């Protein structure tokens, strides 16, 4: 059933469905992402969370439903058009250009929008100016992320936790030239991290949200991280919406405890 969303929602997903053959990966899913907040998307393995991210970013086309970002219909748009609308993302598995330096990784989305291949080949004044601006912007992002000292290291030489931060920095760089609200999707950013690294990542995410004014949505299995940094939580189960609300409300929801945590909640006496 369709729902009405308040104007404060930057992203609106309505009755979203996606089937692969006879399998309903996402079914009649509706939720909103509040502008300026951090929304968590959680649920058991196979609930359809990454499929939702792939639908929002144009990797998959919906079987049914609509996706709107700041009033702009993303439903049938291609990935590059969705990026231009202000949506960027990271992935479950880190996808860096390992042979390039960290700085070059962050510069890629900044420089990719620029001049023609012919202009780049002849190193025209415009290209040199553009490259300088991209370098300065990339370094500014890396400074906020605490990565400047690693700027000239090959990405493959960074420890795992810093590679995660570098991927977030590159996703942020995708939106630097966007005028208007931006949405950053983080797909399991704390995957493979220990407790200390996860806490540090939570602080980085909060800093990014504050410093860059970007709206964020993250898929995460570290529930403590979700509860610590998210302003709103959406819970999926078997492709459908199970529950949504503030973190504390979700933590105490019996349906969430049973489906996601896999244990019944103790009855109050």
Notes on the structure:
The chain has 269 residues and is α/β, with parallel strands linked by helices. The chain has 2 domains: 178 residues, Rossmann fold; 82 residues, Rossmann fold, CATH 3.40.50. It has 10 helices and 10 strands. The strands form 2 sheets. The chain has a 6-stranded mixed beta sheet, sandwiched between helices. Strands 2-1-4-5 form a 4-stranded antiparallel beta sheet, covered by helices on one side. A hairpin with a 2-residue loop joins β4 and β5. The two termini are 37 Å apart.
Question: Secondary structure elements and their pairing?
Answer:
Layout: E1 9-20, E2 23-34, E3 38-42, H1 49-56, E4 64-69, E5 72-73, H2 79-84, E6 87-89, H3 102-111, H4 117-122, H5 125-144, H6 160-174, E7 183-187, H7 195-212, E8 215-219, H8 223-229, E9 232-237, E10 240-245, H9 247-251, H10 254-259
Parallel strand pairs: 3-8, 3-9, 6-7, 7-8
Antiparallel strand pairs: 1-2, 1-4, 4-5, 9-10
Helix pairs in contact: 3-5, 3-6, 5-6
Short structural summary:
It is built from ten helices and ten strands. With about 270 residues, the chain is an alpha/beta fold.
Gross geometry: globular
CATH topology of the largest domain: Rossmann fold
What is the helix/strand order? EEEHEEHEHHHHEHEHEEHH
The rounded distance between the terminal residues' Cα atoms is 37 Å
Number of domains: 2
Which labels suit this protein?
269 residues; Rossmann fold; 2 domains; 6-stranded mixed β-sheet; 4-stranded antiparallel β-sheet; 10 helices; globular; disordered N terminus; disordered C terminus
């Amino acid at each position: 059933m369709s729902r009405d969303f308040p104007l404060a929602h930057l992203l609106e997903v309505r009755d979203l469905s996606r089937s692969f053959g006879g399998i309903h990966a996402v079914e009649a899913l509706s939720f909103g992402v509040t502008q300026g907040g951090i929304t968590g998307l959680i649920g058991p393995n196979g609930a359809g969370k990454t499929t939702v991210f792939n639908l929002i970013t144009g990797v998959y086309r919906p079987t049914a439903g609509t996706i709107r970002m700041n009033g702009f219909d993303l439903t049938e748009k291609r990935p590059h058009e969705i990026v231009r609308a202000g949506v960027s993302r990271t992935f479950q598995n880190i996808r860096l250009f390992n042979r390039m330096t960290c700085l070059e990784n962050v510069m890629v989305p900044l420089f990719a929008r620029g001049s023609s291949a012919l202009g780049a080949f002849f190193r025209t004044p415009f290209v040199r100016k553009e490259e300088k601006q991209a370098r300065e912007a990339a370094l500014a992002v890396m400074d906020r992320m605490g990565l400047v000292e690693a700027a000239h290291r090959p990405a493959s030489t960074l420890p795992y936790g810093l590679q995660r931060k570098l991927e977030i920095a590159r996703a942020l760089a995708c939106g630097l030239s966007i005028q208007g609200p931006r949405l950053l999707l983080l797909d399991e950013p704390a995957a493979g991290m220990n407790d200390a690294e996860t806490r540090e990542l939570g602080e980085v995410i909060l800093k990014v949200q504050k410093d860059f004014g970007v709206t964020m949505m993250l898929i995460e299995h570290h529930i403590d991280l979700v509860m610590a940094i998210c302003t709103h939580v959406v819970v999926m189960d078997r492709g459908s919406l199970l529950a949504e609300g503030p973190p504390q409300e979700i933590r105490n929801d019996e349906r969430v405890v049973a489906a996601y945590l896999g244990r019944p909640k103790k009855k109050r006496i």
